[in-house]
Design a protein that fits this description.
Bacterial Protein-export protein SecB, about 140 residues, about 40% strand, elongated, four-stranded antiparallel sheet, alpha+beta
Length: about 140
Amino acid sequence: MEIKRSELQQEMFVLLETKISLVFPKETQTNDIDDLDIDYHVFTNSDEDHLVRIIFDIKAIHHLMKQPGLNIELQASCDFRIAESIEAGSDLFNQLISNAATAITYNNIRAYLQNVTSYYPVEPYILPAIDMQTV
């Protein structure tokens, strides 16, 4: 089987800001807390329209009623290059960004968070899988 390279290639993944802290339950807390806020932006390079940057901002608080948990604030970025053979702004170009590039960036963040939180004295945090086609 011959494997074909994708028209979308990741060039960089970087964490721009990360803050992870322990959260201790309050005596008045009556239920588990699992709060997640995800926001992302897509930027194209004004000089080179086939270079795209995806930036995610993620805030999560996760802890059980009687156990410590985590408060997470994270900003991460991925740069992607889309093949010159695909016209900038075309449906395929936009689908590569909205479906593939955003999903790849999010999965990089998921892997990072699972890895780094495995060193904390609580359960590792795994971002839930999301369907980027519905965003």
